[in-house]
Amino acid sequence: MSNYFNYFPKTYYNLSSLDDVDTVTNLTVNYSFNGDIVNNNAAYYEYTIEEGDTPEIVSYKIYGDAFFHWLLLKYNNITDVNSQWPLDYKSLTDSIEETYSEFAGINETGLEWAINNYHSYYKVITKTYVGSTDIDIEEIRIDANAYSLLSTSSASYTLPNSTVMNVAVTKTRKTYYDYEVELNEDKRIIKILKKEFINAVKDEFIEIMDNV
Predict the structure, then answer these.
(1) Do 62 and 21 sit in the same domain of this protein?
(2) What DSSP character marks residue 86?
(3) Which residues span the domain enclosing 63?
(4) pTM (2 d.p.)
């Protein structure tokens, strides 16, 4: 299919203080998904964005046409690809370097500073149950002082139903580098609208654009 914006309506715009009027694409028109599709869990499945994937690449992989990149973005409420789409490794490390360079010392890069300094501290409570593969993990954010004073421990308790529960208290900390990587990784899971809904969405989109 042709370019996404080719379907948008045209409008007249005065480009100067003179009486020159030109025809431009009206980018203020917005398209929203039918609520029945957005709220239907059976209409989509989850996809993990791979290293090097762009919206166009994912669209081609899934639908055989890069045109539907706009559908992926709309369906996942992504309005700014630069900030809401995961960065590749080089772009991520470049971003970290730029973000933290102001904190770096002499002969230290921003990336090195981010790797060597801590963003947050956590108390971790892990519960396991004898005879079961169930595991419950709770991370509680604490400050640096509480982290330094926290001692690790473990204990066992018998629950009213006779199940033996083991509780381990440990601690962990996250560097600024880890924090940025985690934020980036959280963006990798997106919803993919199933192919059987594509034609209906496309037809609805074109009809809306034709009637603006």
Answers:
(1) yes
(2) P
(3) 4-86+188-210
(4) 0.75
In a domain, 112, yes or no: no
Residues 201 and 157 reside in one and the same domain: no
- Residue 129's SS3 state is strand
Element (H, E) at 207: helix 198-210
For residue 210, the model assigns a pLDDT of 54
Say how far apart CA 18 and CA 30 lie, in whole Å: 30
Q: Contact 9/212 with Cβ under 8 angstroms? A: yes
Question: Which segments of the chain have a pLDDT < 50?
Answer: 1-2, 5, 7-9, 11-12, 23-29
Q: At what angle do helices 89-100 and 176-185 cross, to 10 degrees?
A: 140
CB-based burial, 145-169: b 16+ in 10 Å, e otherwise: eebeebeeeeeeeeeeeeeebeeee
For 67, the token pair is: 């045109």
Please, which residues bridge with residue 82 across strands? Answer: none
CB atoms near residue 120 (< 10 Å): 17
**C-alpha to C-alpha distance for 65 and 146, rounded to whole angstroms:** 53
Structure tokens at 16: 């100067």
**Closest residue by Cα to residue 178 from 121, 107, 106:** 121
The tally of domains found in the chain comes to 2
pLDDT tens digit sequence for 13-52: 555 555 655 544 434 445 555 556 666 788 899 999 999 9
Whether 160 maps to a domain, the answer reads: yes
What is the C-alpha to C-alpha distance for residues 101 and 78, in angstroms, rounded to an integer? 28
